[in-house]
Design brief:
InterPro entries: Fumarylacetoacetase, Fumarylacetoacetase-like_C, Fumarylacetoacetase_C_sf, Fumarylacetoacetase_N, Fumarylacetoacetase_N_sf. Its cofactor is Ca(2+); Mg(2+). It comes from Actinomadura soli. With 388 residues, this protein is α+β, with helices and mostly antiparallel strands. Strands 6, 7, 8, 13, 14, 16, 17 and 22 form an eight-stranded mixed sheet that branches. The protein is globular. The termini are far apart. The chain binds ligand LGMQ2O6W, calcium ion and magnesium ion. The site of magnesium ion has 5 residues, from loops.
Length: 388
């Protein structure tokens, strides 16, 4: 038997307990929980965790999420079988869940206004619908990849406004989008709507997302149906799913919503979240996006996603859209940070705009916990490889 040392200031203390899928040289992939600098093999708690995915557990629903969390707190705060405890540095993490459908929203007013100015100069930055509904699109679930996966530079059609015709080639304007993703645990049948105040009954947890974006491909292809190949080549997520149950102390009001949204989008107790993100480019922090600035809450996103009677499923991932704050160094995409590539920023002493082959981007986040310690989300990382 052993006892896990949990420093008081650990971002992975008893208030957090994020779930992930891990393996070791001797163990096939299975579900574990991160506790300080250790991973506890949850197959000692229940067989549902022997699966290489969180989906079977998530599908058991909110009452089970609460009950199992209490059991894990008891288990890891006392003496525990040492064979079930692995140093985090000795495990490999994998995709934590099977992505069912993937939706990406556009919930930051700062980001949407900046992109409107960059993509549609001369017209109103926000479209007339933007303050009435959380704008989103359906993305590609099959190309959601775990943190650490290399990102091959995408190729496709590019056409700058001055070009007479499109050309095929590797993207020259490869970008990131720092986002927060919400994982549906308990779905809803076709024909049903998820009420805006039922969010916590359906959403199991939260991950960090990097929605890699090829701006030159996107700018040419997106009219009028929205993002397609400029974003579908890869979306990276962090390995640890922070339970929504761990984020009670991170809840804040969303910014004032004017005009008042339609009744199905009105929350009794809004699900704004006070997460602090960082974006590092080749090891240098270049941005600190504040999630609390997001106009639409994830509860409003889920209510909107199902208001037409579309079903939702265990493993559905919906992302917030790029998190950007009002200040320049709070922007969650390089197209905004460098104003369309016209205002380079200095990274390790060199002027930079979009991503070059070999670049690495790491996104992290923390949130206030119930005591002094912060809740950690770990990180989502990826390195750019040359086009094929
Ligand atoms: O305004 C546009 O035409 C394009 C917007 C995006 O690229 C944003 C997107 O993917 C959603 C987001 O991350 O906010
Ligand atoms: Ca996005
Ligand atoms: Mg993407």
């Amino acid at each position: 038997m052993t006892r896990i040392a949990i420093p008081d200031d650990s971002p992975f203390g008893l208030a957090n307990l994020p779930y992930g899928v891990f393996s070791t040289p001797g163990l096939t992939p299975r579900v574990g929980v991160r506790v300080a600098d250790h991973v506890v093999d949850l197959t000692i708690v229940d067989d549902v965790f022997a699966a290489p995915s969180l989906n079977p557990f998530m599908a058991q629903g909110h009452a089970r999420w609460v009950e199992v969390r209490e059991r894990i707190i008891d288990l890891v705060s006392g003496d525990i079988d040492g064979a079930a405890v692995h140093p985090v540095g000795a495990v490999t993490t994998h995709m934590p869940f099977e992505v069912a459908d993937y939706v990406d929203f556009y919930a930051s007013e700062h980001h949407a206004s900046n992109l409107g100015r960059l993509f549609r100069p001369g017209s109103e930055p926000l479209m007339p619908n933007w303050k009435h509904l959380p704008v989103g699109y359906h993305g590609r679930a099959g190309t959601v990849v775990p943190s650490g996966t290399d990102i091959v530079r995408p190729s496709g059609q590019r056409k700058a406004p001055a070009d007479a015709a499109p050309a095929y080639g590797a993207s020259r304007r490869l970008d990131i989008e720092a986002e927060v993703g919400f994982v549906v645990g308990a779905g809803s049948p076709i024909g049903a709507q998820i009420g805006v105040d039922d969010f916590d009954q359906h959403v199991f947890g939260v991950v960090l997302v990097n929605d890699w974006s090829a701006r030159d491909i996107q700018a040419w292809e997106y009219v009028p149906l929205g993002p397609f190949l400029g974003k579908s080549f890869a979306t990276s997520i962090s390995p640890w799913v922070v339970p929504l149950l761990a984020l009670e102390s991170a809840r804040v009001a969303t910014p004032p919503q004017d005009p008042e949204p339609l009744p199905y989008l009105r929350e009794k107790n809004p699900w704004g979240l006070d997460l602090d993100l960082t974006v590092s480019w080749n090891g240098q922090v270049v941005s600190r996006p504040p999630y609390r600035e997001m106009y639409w809450s994830p509860a409003q996103m889920l209510a909107h996603m199902t208001v037409n009677g579309a079903s939702s499923r265990t493993g559905d991932l919906f992302a917030s859209g790029t998190v950007s704050g009002p200040d320049r160094d709070q922007r969650g995409a390089f197209i905004e940070l460098t104003w369309g590539g016209k205002e380079p920023i200095e990274v390790n002493g060199a002027p930079r705009t979009f991503l070059e082959d070999g670049d690495e981007v790491v996104i992290t986040a923390t949130a206030p916990g119930p005591s002094g310690a912060r809740i950690g989300f770990g990180e989502v990382s990826g390195r750019v490889l040359p086009a094929r």
